[in-house]
Fold:
Amino acid sequence: MPTASPSILSFARTLEPSHMLMFSAPTMASTVSEMVPVTIREEPLRGLNATSKTPLEKRDQAILQVVESSELAPGHEALVLRGRLLIKNRYATPQTCSESGFLRLHAEVLEQVKGADAGIAELGTRYAIQIACGMLGWRNFLTADRHRVMVELGSEQLDFDNLLRDEAQPFSLDTASYEAHRRTLQTLAGWIADALLRETGHGTMLRLQARYMLGLGARVYPSQEWPSDDQKRASQRRWPGGEGVTRMLAKLRLPNGELQAIVNDRKAGNTLRQIDTWYPDARPNRPIAVEPYGANSHEARAWRRTTGSMKEIIERLARSGGQTLSREDRLFYTALCIRGGVFGGGEE
Structure:
């Protein structure tokens, strides 16, 4: 039975990653006591103009700028990320829904996803593969010679040594790429799926650690942040003559005043969400992050700009009374409810 499309539909985040703290370690096998925080420093640069918009008369002039950078400690060759993931069932019930009739449709979609679709098990598998393959390291993963991921739940620990995501079928556990780790991946996927299905309690806490072999003195890549005008002005006072800091890195201030590099919680969350292979004109080997419009900043494209956007799916669900959603639509809808945010007939 049709109902009105809600003008506001909001969910709290179900997957709550922490900041991933970055540590420098002598070797991949180093103990916690041997690790030191990766720190951030300002680095003045004398660069050159490179953009096509640079006026002709300035193309031979140097650019004085300041960037923040970080690297492993002297004599160290491994990067360690440490953090946690809290999974708490918050997608089943909206925080806000302006149309009470839509709540029934939402519940019916989740009933199918949890039941006939086996969708929660599939989502658990996709999140597990993202974690186990070391994707939380982002650019550090791409520059690593090898990596190792450890996940703990209570007294149990899972170990994934140098597991790489399958290039052709990244989320199918039946591929040969996952054969050596299949049982461990199934266990992690089960932990996540069970947490997504649990209705009550404080949630499930997974402790995460990822190690990357980068090499002696290697550059480290924390999350990047946008410098404010105040931060630029403060940087210009420290480095007169330049344009101020142009690249800022994510960090936390330690009790001793040093700045420890991090992969921030938003970047970590984006990693977990890179499971969408259901978008229009999808490339199965090119998953994108679960976003309302399927926006991918690296490609400067929104894959769900109109068809398949959260807005369009909500409206179609309301008009049809829940009869027109495909299994792929239901999985995307559920994954976006797990992501959390404000959706509806207005602005996502």
